[in-house]
Amino acid sequence: SLSLDGQNQCLKAAQDCGLYEKCGSLRSEYVVACTKRSAVSDSSCNRQKCHRALRRFLERVPEEYSFALLFCPCSEPLCAERRRKTIVPSCSYEENGRGEERVGKPNCLSLQNYCSRDELCRSRLADFQQNCQPSPKSASGCVRESRAMCLKAYSGLIGTIMTPNYVSNSSAEVSLWCTCDGSGNEWQSCQRTLNMFSSNTCL
């Protein structure tokens, strides 16, 4: 949000990160990895390299810097756009177009199935499900009464096939890059997967 001195909190978080050597250099590293075009195709990035660099940033940079970038509070669109673009979503979050065509969103259940076959993704998703269980009855909105644990688990998914992100510049709503269209009789379990992010009071 705009604090009393009118400063964009996401811009301030980026400046603070730049002043702390480890944060600045690892942030530059993932930005380069996520914006560089892959040799195979001029139109897309190397998503694996991008994800690996993002995970390295989140694992090695103290949370006071990384979380300030990921979860900076915003009350106006410019701030929210900066927040949404923190993880270079054009590579890390959205499926890239092949050539000129845009690839449609994958099905959420196929993302989850893919995640369950990857040891790192599987354990981080389990961590997220455990620590981000929503509860309408608790003050924090979380079953475990610890929003901090939930944010840590949420950030653990960034850089996996289940990378979540902000969906717009006008809200703090987050979601996976997937859809439940075409889920047939598995539509409800697909919606449950999607709602873990988009309708979660704990986040």
UniProtKB/TrEMBL annotation:
**Alphabetical keyword list:** Cell membrane, Glycoprotein, GPI-anchor, Lipoprotein, Membrane, Receptor, Signal
InterPro entries noted in UniProt: GDNF/GAS1, GDNF_alpha, GDNF_rcpt
Q: What SUPFAM superfamilies has UniProt attached to this entry?
A: GDNF receptor-like (SSF110035)
List localization entries. Cell membrane
Write down the membrane topology. Answer: Lipid-anchor; GPI-anchor
Give the primary localization class. Answer: membrane
- A GO biological process this protein is involved in? nervous system development
Q: Which residues form the GDNF/GAS1 domain?
A: 10-91, 108-202
Q: State whether keyword Magnesium applies.
A: no
Q: Which GO terms describe its molecular function?
A: signaling receptor activity
Q: Which Gene3D superfamilies match?
A: GDNF binding domain
* Family designation: Belongs to the GDNFR family.
This chain belongs to the protein called (spotted green pufferfish) hypothetical protein
Q: Which organism is it from?
A: Tetraodon nigroviridis (Spotted green pufferfish)
